[in-house]
Amino acid sequence: MRSDVRDSGFSLIEVLVAAAIIVVTTTTVASLVTRSAVMNEVSNDVTRASLLASDKMEQLRALPFDDPALAASPPGSLDVDVEGYSDTIDARYGRRWSIEPLPADPAAAIVIQVVVTPLRGPGQARIVTVRARHAP
Known about the structure:
Layout: H1 12-62, E1 86-89, E2 93-101, E3 109-118, E4 125-132
């Protein structure tokens, strides 16, 4: 007796193994796409926070040295909202700043710090500069 039946096609085990590989691969790729989207959003928030910090720093540095807005800030003004040393932008970012005399030479320079924090997630932008009084 002669058999003309050929073994063609896939066995059930081969199909199940292939299906399992596809499921694991698809799940991994979906997880990576989701994480990538979340990290992209965090990155955008930190970039926007950096721009807002830079804008505030430019505003403060543009003021005359004797401007009342450059008066020394109360202690902790970078940690809690203090009237005149904090604001909220677009209800999405909290911005705080402090002005302190330079410890080495309080009459000649001030230290300006600006911190911007996204209110809905992680990340923070901080800029610090020293502004010296120009000699008359």
